[in-house]
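Bug report

Summary: structure tokens for Probable thiamine biosynthetic bifunctional enzyme, chloroplastic isoform X1 differ between web form and batch submission.
Environment: batch mode, default settings.
Steps: 1) Submit the sequence below via batch. 2) Compare with the web form result.

Sequence submitted:
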Amino acid sequence: MALPFQTLSTRIPRNTTPLHSPPRVNRALASRKRAALVAASAMYGSAADGAHKRKLQPLPHVLTVAGSDSGAGAGVQADIKACGALGVFCSSVVTAVTAQNTVGVQGVHVVPESFVEEQLRSVLSDMDVDVVKTGMLPSIGVVKVLCDSLRKFPVKALVVDPVMVSTSGDTLSAPSTLSGYRDQLFAMADIVTPNLKEASALLGGAPLKTVYDMRDAAKSIYNLGPRHVLVKGGDLSDSSDAIDIFFDGQTCHELRGSRVKTRNTHGTGCTMASCIAAELAKGSAMLQAVQEAKAFVESALHYSKDMAIGNGPQGPFDHLFRLKSPHYNVGATPRFNPDDLFLYAVTDSRMNKKWGRSITDAVQAAIEGGATIIQLREKEAETREFIESAKACLEICRSSRVPLLINDRVDVALACGADGVHVGQSDMPARTARELLGPGKIIGVSCKTPAQAEKAWADGADYIGCGGVFPTTTKEDNITVGMEGLKAVCLASKLPVVAIGGIGIANARSVMEIGVPNLKGIAIVSALFDRECVATETRKLRSVLMDACSRTNLSV
Ligand SMILES: Cc1ncc(COP(=O)(O)OP(=O)(O)O)c(N)n1
Ligand SMILES: Cc1ncsc1CCOP(=O)(O)O
Ligand SMILES: [Mg+2]
């Protein structure tokens, strides 16, 4: 079939589309993804004759909507490399083609809006995109086309890098695009990531000179509609650190990194936004995604600081540094892997006492049986005793590389150096816990409703514990949400979910077969610890879960 070929327009087109504030991107992605998996599963199932059904695994997917950079330091090329380096698939809708190198931008061909729309339709109607990241949007018409497409094909999150001027000082978007950002796109954005110049342009032109200016700017841009703002201070003069300001509507976080002395900084903005998008696609909370992205960029600049590509003043850097130098892989191990939720053992001091075992013996046995994460839920322990036993459990967990979380007690988690905490709706708010624990610790939040799940994500949690799914005697007066409630929370949640409450050998399979990709495992108290042999019970449950996963499309 002959494909229609369209010549690129050679100017930035004007557009008089009326402006309006669209609703935020809605969140029907999970069900779309599930439908696609079911359809593909059916196809492969018949082809593979039932018994050898192929395991279909959705890949975290970012779509970049940006301009091409012939020098490959920034734009679509940087986005694809950044996502690839972080293990995320990246599709691309090209909004403009630039002739560009380390000297500057020599030319721009803008892709017609109708063809940007066609590319968007091609990708979004077929592929399961988790996160859309925007870069160079050359006209207000392209902004409108993008907003319309996102309303038709909702995604999990939208990352907007409001690219206006290249690092070499060349204009990359029409002045009217500014109003497109302010009046249309920002209201749909989960995060906007301006540098100092872009933040200034968005707010009327006053220059940003200090960290205080950056804080004020972050708050003012937040008032334009996005859920989070990251003002990047890479160009801040008189600062030995690379300081960025992250604002989530309540708290301003000052994120400090070391400033790398190098000429090879072309594409840092695109890379930062793409890394945030990639981390979000993998299921990270927003602050965590931003921290990971900042660490990635800093390491990439450090690795590439003496690299020589081109003869101009601003060179590209190497996104694939982690493949080339094991040194940089040290910090690359994510502190939280959602798959760790698979078989989540929650201790109970009363049960362990009843069976005459210490908490350390209980933890050791659960790990021996295959528990993938441990939570110490010691409701009756005195603080000092709790800290001591938590330290002993942490040693056991560390030697098996199993994360250890503390239930309710952020103070105990801090005191013993645990990997994180689990908090409920009446415990310390997740947002406060995040402020106290910092971005490096794991935070789980108990949620019974989609609204609570949404808030947990916004507050910086890493996962959700949903339940009680079934009635239980382990926790008094706990309202049961049932399988339907669990499913509703999973579908609404951008975070991975673990099911809890009344789960044991008899019903674990039915829970795991609920068929929602972000249900990552089950959390169990009595079916492990109110038994004579914890290791045996854990082993049995593990085999039930493995079996359930091999019957569905879930990865183990
Ligand atoms: C994994 C997991 N999910 C939910 C809970 C319950 O937490 P919470 O609602 O705070 O109740 P308590 O456990 O503190 O009684 C949990 N502990 N773990
Ligand atoms: C802590 C908690 N949160 C909701 S139900 C529950 C208790 C789960 O215990 P069990 O696995 O024995 O039902
Ligand atoms: Mg609690």
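Above is the batch result. After comparison, the two runs are identical; trailing whitespace caused the diff. Residues 1-27, 44-53 have pLDDT under 50 and may be disordered. The longest strand covers residues 89-100.
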